[in-house]
Specification:
single chain, about 290 residues, alpha+beta, 5-stranded mixed sheet, 5-stranded antiparallel sheet, 10 strands, flat
């Protein structure tokens, strides 16, 4: 993937299906408007324009950079969680300091301002300082809550990446998108331009499916895997009843149907830690 103009660097992140463009120089008004129109958003933390992959967005970057490099996952979720939690703790500490400062050097409660007394100006300034510190304390408290939510969201996102159920549903959606593009490509009424556009989407979805299937393969259900690691139709091995098929997946247990043995066809519920993926036994070699 090459382009005629060099303006910074661009990467494609397979993990979240995003294009990330870091321009070498500040965009002028036209380039800025075009990037916003195409759906790019500026991520200040990474100093990059980011958007989910589309053919038009890829073409936009290829006209401005030498190449688009591929990265599997440039982010470190654990480092982000620690960074956000640190910011939340710092903001909470500052909020506590502001609240403490708001209660200092105040006149006795209920004392009115003596306008004709020399202490009047000092009294007013003390109240203004207290009000200012309380407003700052509230702002810092809201900032701390913001960073706590960011840390929690990052943790949830990291767990989703390793949740087989989430990955399976993502693969199902990608397969549906792939089939839709195949119908466009094979339709005789499709124009050449539309067919070429659909072909690019088809290639992209094929790569996405391969990436997600590879991630799912690295998370193959093992004993003590969560119930969401399985889906209807999976063939598993029960620790007592042997080869079975998953009939349905509940919130806690799996409903299984026995496929072999004297009680073939029998159905019952079993916890996920009692099963593991079925592996076909190797055929016995005949002795010569």
């Amino acid at each position: 993937m090459t382009g005629p103009v060099t303006n910074g660097t661009a990467t494609y992140n397979s993990d979240d299906d995003t294009l990330r463009w870091s321009p070498a120089e500040r965009l002028d008004a036209n380039e800025y408007a075009l990037a916003k129109e195409l759906g790019f958003k500026w991520w200040r933390g990474q100093e990059a324009w980011v958007a989910v992959w589309t053919p038009s967005r890829e073409d936009h970057l290829l006209a401005r950079v030498d190449e688009i490099t591929h990265e599997a996952d440039p982010d470190d979720p654990q480092a982000r969680v620690l960074r956000f939690a640190g910011r939340a703790a710092a903001a909470a500490t500052q909020a506590a300091q502001r609240r403490e400062a708001a209660s200092q050097d105040l006149p006795p409660p209920g004392q009115p301002i003596l306008h004709d007394h020399p202490s009047a100006r000092r009294h007013v300034r003390a109240l203004e300082r207290s009000d200012f510190n309380m407003r700052k304390a509230q702002e810092l408290h809201e900032l701390a809550e913001h960073w706590r939510r960011r840390a929690q969201g990052t943790e949830r996102r990291a767990r989703q990446k390793s949740d087989p159920g989430v990955i399976r549903r993502r693969i199902d959606k990608l397969n549906a998108d792939l089939r839709r593009q195949e119908r466009v490509i094979t339709d005789e009424r499709t124009s050449d331009a539309a067919r070429e556009y659909a072909q690019r989407w088809h290639e992209h979805f094929t790569l996405r499916i391969a990436f997600e299937e590879g991630r799912l393969a690295s998370l193959n259900p093992e004993p003590f895997a969560p119930v969401t690691a399985y889906k209807k139709g999976d063939v598993v091995q029960h620790q007592r009843w042997g080869k079975c098929q998953v009939v349905s997946v509940g919130r806690v247990n799996l409903k299984l149907q026995q496929l072999t043995g004297a009680t073939v066809g029998w159905q019952w519920a079993a916890p996920p830690h009692e099963v593991k993926p079925w592996v076909e036994p190797e055929p016995l070699q005949q002795q010569e």
